[in-house]
Design brief:
Elements (H helix, E strand, L loop, with lengths): L13 H27 L4 H14 L4 E5 L9 E5 L1 H25 L2 H9 L1 H10 L1 H20 L4 H16 L7 H29 L15 H22 L6 H9 L4 H15 L1
Antiparallel strand pairs: 1-2
């Protein structure tokens, strides 16, 4: 994943931010418990969002406590976690593992190969427990590589690959909420892919790497077009989200969807404007 599903802290109440941190620290603790320090390297804002979303929807019991950690050795940190934290941890591991393998295959990065090898055994067990999700991630990596090789300019096609994959990740189990979770993940995945591509556009153009936005970047209205497309994706995502019967932690989730997810776009857009004015 790409780390876009984070909070906009200045727009949050203190109690909501502290609760968000407890979920984040809880996910970190579960990663360490099940997969050690290597597992903690896969900790992400995106999987924290997933854990909060699924907890809000299914409302299982949350286990809370306070613990020391390596980053905060002098003060106990509040943590909240449960089986849905375990699921988010497993999905983060799975995504990281296949992305590392993709980096090795594409760029022959030895570091990526070594890191992937370090988490291979637990990831194979995760793939066995979650064959549908594992298959979705593998298919995503393969099809994305094809699109990049074809140098396709079809935004919807290439972004839809991330959307389809994330839709499967969002579906914890097949039930009455599966369709909405899958649709929400689909549009959110498209948003994340296109946001990441927008943020990387300048570097990708400079280094002649594939980026679907590059075919449209010379247009005078490019930044407005990009923002419109991203807004459309997030509008669809938000519409599905608001249909879900979620009350618990709703303000945290809304902060991420309506504000936090956009923070990097504003930074990237301002950076682009600064570069153009120089």
């Amino acid at each position: 994943m790409f780390g876009y599903l984070t909070v906009n802290k200045p727009e949050m109440k203190i109690k909501d931010y502290e609760r968000y941190r407890a979920y984040y620290c809880g996910l970190c603790r579960r990663l360490y418990k099940h997969y050690g320090k290597k597992g903690q390297l896969t900790l992400s804002f995106d999987m924290t969002f997933l854990a909060i979303l699924l907890n809000g929807l299914y409302e299982p019991k949350l286990h809370s406590g306070k613990h020391f950690c390596g980053l905060h050795p002098t003060k106990r940190q509040k943590v909240m976690c449960n089986q849905l934290s375990d699921y988010a941890a497993d999905m983060g591991m799975l995504l990281t593992y296949y992305n590392l393998l993709d980096d090795w295959q594409d760029d022959k990065k030895l570091k990526s190969l070594l890191l992937a090898d370090g988490i291979r055994k637990p990831c194979m067990e995760i793939a066995r427990r979650y064959p549908r999700q594992s298959r979705a991630v593998r298919d995503y990596i393969k099809k994305l590589s094809v699109c990049e090789g074809e140098n396709t300019d079809q935004l919807d096609r290439v972004a839809g690959l991330t959307g389809k994959m994330l839709g499967e990740i969002f579906v914890f189990r097949e039930d009455e909420w599966s369709d909405d979770l899958r649709t929400m993940g689909f549009f959110l995945g498209k948003f994340i892919y296109l946001m990441d591509a927008y943020e990387d556009l300048s570097d990708d153009l400079k280094n002649e790497r594939y980026n679907p936005w590059s075919f449209y970047a010379k247009s005078e209205e490019f930044d407005q077009r990009a923002e419109t497309v991203l807004t459309m994706m997030m509008t669809e995502c938000a519409a599905v989200f608001e249909r879900l019967p979620i009350l618990k932690d709703i303000e945290i989730l809304r902060n991420i969807i309506y504000s936090g997810a956009w923070t990097k776009f504003e930074i990237a857009k301002n950076k682009r404007k600064g570069s153009e004015e120089e």
